[in-house]
Amino acid sequence: MPPIADILFFVALLAIAGAVAGLLAGVFGIGGGAVLVPVFYQVFGYAGIPEDVIMHLAVGTSTALIVPTSIRSFRAHEKRGAIDKDLLKGWVIAVPLGALLATVVAAYVSSEGLRLFFAVMGLVLAARMLFLSNRFHLGTDLPGQPFRFITGTAIGLFSGLMGFGGGVFNNTFMTLYGRPIHQAVATSSGVGVLISIPAFFGFIFAGWGEAGLPPFSTGYVNWIAFAVIFPIAMLVTPYGAQLAHRLNKKQLEMGFAVFLLFVSARFFWSLYG
């Protein structure tokens, strides 16, 4: 057990991280994974956690935080009747399958591999926001099977590897096929539930008994980080949302794209700098 001063320093860093993550999540309208994973990576590094488990711990703990927030969001959107439940029913197997595959892959991939994947996908998502107009469509309705099943599995896999709730990928998929952004966002809350629950248990199993994990960790989920981040992020997120309403959609997309570019550059620097 490390000295109490070290634990308190770790908690203080996490409190700051929770405030930053909650604010940015509110500004950009995302579940927080895109913000939390790089923030966790930075904080865990400052806390002296071994490099070879930092990224796995960041993704696993982010996934744990998505479980309660995605369930809460799903219930709120369900009351408004904005969710495409037919799509979710068709993904009950596909999305969790992809999320579980992500934890299997993560168990065998190095920290460097996870950082490289996050950095590359961050660049792809940023490029999409910067250069692809929302008027760009691949079709007028969602594709049928088996393409839809394969897409759901891919969303679960990519989101699980990045510690995302699936919103970024599902929003892209649905809007590319002509669905309104509000319906896409609402449906993404259900996708987050389908991803986060199996991925949560998967990351616990994948990291069980792993050397170098900080105190109060169950597999790749750190409960100190969870306990500190969750209430602070929930408290601060509405203020970020208020700030978001002062910006137009293009400004928000540009801001999030710049943030993703910064995060990608940070990970590339950690790999090759």
Q: Give Rg in angstroms.
A: 18 Å
The number of distinct β-strands equals 2
Task: Tell me the β content.
Answer: under 5%
| C-alpha end-to-end distance | 33 Å
SSE topology string: HHHHHHHHHEEHH
Q: In total, how many domains does the architecture comprise?
A: 1
Note the overall shape: globular
Flag low-confidence runs: none
Question: What descriptive keywords fit this protein?
Answer:
single chain; 273 residues; mainly alpha; two-stranded antiparallel ribbon; 11 helices; 2 strands
Describe the structure.
- The protein has a two-stranded antiparallel ribbon with strand order 1-2.
- A hairpin with a 2-residue loop joins strand 1 and strand 2.
- It has one domain.
- The chain starts with a helix and ends with a helix.
- The protein is 77% helix and 1% strand.
- With 273 residues, the protein is mainly alpha-helical.
TL;DR?
This protein has one domain. It is 77% helix and 1% strand. The protein contains eleven helices and two strands, in the order H-H-H-H-H-H-H-H-H-E-E-H-H.
Task: Please describe the topology of this protein.
Elements: H1 4-28, H2 33-46, H3 51-80, H4 85-90, H5 94-108, H6 111-131, H7 147-162, H8 167-176, H9 181-206, E1 217-218, E2 221-222, H10 223-244, H11 249-272
Helix pairs in contact: 1-2, 1-10, 2-3, 3-6, 3-9, 3-10, 5-7, 5-9, 6-11, 8-9
